[in-house]
Amino acid sequence: MDLTNEKIIEMYKTMKRIREFETNASRLFAEGSIPGFVHLYLGEEAVATGVCATLNNDDFITSTHRGHGHIIAKGGDTKYMMAELFGKETGYCKGKGGSMHIADATKGILGANGIVGAGQNIAVGAGLSAKYRKSGQVCACFFGDGSTNQGTFHESINLASIWKLPVVFVCENNLYGISMSQARHQAIQDVADRAVAYNIPGIVVDGNDVFAVYEAVVEAVARARSGQGPTLIECKTYRHKGHFEGDPTTYRASEEVQEWMAKDPLPRIVAYLLDNDIVTEEELKKIDDEIVKEIADAIKFAEDSPVPSLESIVQDIYTDIVEEVR
Amino acid sequence: MKTMSMMEAIREAMNKRMREDENVLLFGEDVGAFGGCFGVSAGMFDEFGPERVLDTPISEGVIIGTAVGSAATGLRPIAELMFIDFVTVGADQLVNQAAKMRYMFGGKINLPMVVRLPLGAGISAAAQHSQSLEAWLAHIPGLKVVYPSTPADAYGLMLQSIDDENPVIFLEHKILYGASGEVDENMKPIEFGIADIKREGSDVTIVATGKMVHEVLAAAEKLAEEGIEAEILDPRTLFPFDKETLLKSIEKTNKVIIVTEENKRGSYASEIAAVIAEDGFDFLDAPVVRLCAMNTPVPFSPVLEQYYVPSAEEIVTAVKKMF
User: Fold this and answer.
1) Which pTM was predicted?
2) Which residues of A touch B57 (CB under 8 A)?
3) For residue A12, what are the domain limits?
4) Half-sphere exposure for B294 (CA within 13 Å, toward CB)
5) ipTM
């Protein structure tokens, strides 16, 4: 693996940033500061981090309802993210989108998405755009195992494969589509098997090993940029929490949860950093402290920000039409 | 000025913009060398090549999704679905994605995209290939809905649709593809939200869209023979909708009938009637009348299909009843 220590530390910071953001989001949701639905990325940090570490700032991603991790990994600003979760005017979407709809076009983030599988089709459009403009950009398309039973999965990979579009399809197989286990929602164990149907590579990786994800995606991105088309990468992972905050998760056996908690990607990368003398305990603490402060500042920013003006309700629908407020 | 069919007008407007802007692309089922299901894109593949006129698999969801994703990342796509009826298959990408992205993202992503949807009855294509679903689409904030009735309007409105920074639904009545008219190829794009008075009159306002504009024009000639001068108003765009021109006409005529090819229940004609009831009630000397298709699926047999759609004779009868 040709990763510099600097890059490895960056990857750790991203994972830690996601962990800290999500842990606080969980608490703030429970306390009532965050309205609506919140779907947390806790436990899946290695996937977004490993994927986005292979991308450039102008590469694209499409995300899901469980999108906070993707957005942080692609460079999203936690301050504007947190303000959006709070429904504040200073949020990424001026409080109009919330947790499930954060986007940042300046960083190629084409949006989290509340419709399961919808981002797959949008990713194909971004791929067509990159290919047509010969920009060299790629689009990493994140989705869960649950979405691989949607028509969008088939339609999008089929089209991307015949047009050889620069899209990397990243399946985060966390073993559940809401409450339905993979064994109940599809008759295969590896989503990657479905790549055969599109005559593209299908690769299974340990989604809790950030370096394994990185290596697989580096290859897929190179393939995409060189005009050879899409790859389907399945990252086996697990969400530490339920589908949404408040989900009692009665559908998961505690043995299974324990088994996966032992595979938590965060302690794994920490061990790697220390065992390989990439950082000292002291340096690690300093990094952690900085991230804890960043998220605390983001929360403060969100708390101190104004709510949207009522007049803003009719703005931003069209570029040029603003209907009257009722 | 040049005489063109509606189909040629749509094609020539697309050609014009594709020649001017390399970021304009056309894709859909069989739009390439085949020339499109109805022949609208005939010759475009030869001129612009397979990179800009792309055949897609029969996958309506990803056709619209590709428009969304490419519009969000620098292109100005035109997507064609063969029939408006298939919009049900790709509805998520239109309703939940295209229409909502700009708003959900706080105005930070624009989607300059056009979705072309052939619609309407008249070719015995039966219930899944003949509907008029404009009310569904006009209902959704975030979409603009364009519905031309003449080649000149189609040309100018298509130019504007491609130029627009927002998702535009461009409705093409298949029976009108062959309708011919004069088109000024140097015309400016037609601004959305400006109705066109297709015939001036003082006795009754008839609002009509698409193919019904032509039925209504035929009816107006018959009505004139009986001393009733109808003013015919074609909104041309359902959203944005030109309320001012409509109300001005009704202020003059004091009577209004709305003629569309939709199922009457929940139709856009109903929306227009509601607008008149709210803002034009004082102008009215008679109740607002809606004359629409029946509340049935579109039937197959020509005799039934003809009966399903309002005819010029029915329009004449309905208007005369108002006096």
Assistant:
1) 0.97
2) 155, 158-159, 162
3) 5-314
4) 13
5) 0.96
